[in-house]
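REQUEST ID: PR-0412
SUBMITTED BY: lab tech R.K.
PRIORITY: routine
TASK: structure prediction, single protein chain
INPUT:
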Amino acid sequence: MDVRAGPNGLGYGRLGMIVPKRLVVSAVKRNRIKRLIRECFRQRQSELAGLDIIARLRASATDHPADETRLRDDFLKGMAACRACVRGRRHHPNDTE
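STATUS: complete
OUTPUT:
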């Protein structure tokens, strides 16, 4: 799973998900994956205030799409890395934000 983040200038976090149909053909499985990601995000939303998070399911993660623990762990690792990266950035004085 590929997780990206960026500041959104708001007081709350937002989540975007990409679960391609060509990787997970069954709509039931795609929706289950989205529910898992959404629940992980919801549980940590207070930590992610001011961030836009985009989670994209990659081909390597679909080897075992029913492996909920692996999907959850991949998403949480990606969120932690993004949070550390974005928080570590400094605001440049010439930015127009």
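NOTES: Helices lie at 27-43, 68-88.
REVIEWED BY: pending
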